[in-house]
Amino acid sequence: MNNRLKVLRAERDLTQAQLAELLNVSRQTINAIEKGKFDPSLPLAFKAARLFNLTIEQIFIDDEY
């Protein structure tokens, strides 16, 4: 799954650690999601969407479609 998390984070001048704190996950989790090595859980995807005031689909792009 591709995502725009890194771009959105950079646009808001957030570090991975700051975003991780806002989403209540580790910095390593943010890093893994940004690199496409880990797909977020649905609750985490919803938290990210609310934080950035976007829909899940605007952040996370399913490669299969």
Supply database-style keywords.
65 residues, 58% helix, 2 strands, globular, mainly alpha, 5 helices, 434 Repressor (Amino-terminal Domain), two-stranded antiparallel ribbon
Task: Put the structure in a nutshell.
By secondary structure, this protein is mainly alpha-helical.
Explained architecture:
This protein is mainly alpha-helical and 65 residues long. It has one domain (2-61): lambda repressor-like DNA-binding domains (434 Repressor (Amino-terminal Domain)). The chain is 58% helix and 6% strand. It has helices at 5-11, 16-23, 27-34, 42-52, 56-59, and strands at residues 2-3, 60-61. It has a two-stranded antiparallel ribbon with strand order 1-2. Helix 2 crosses helix 3 (27-34). Residues 5-59 form the HTH cro/C1-type domain.
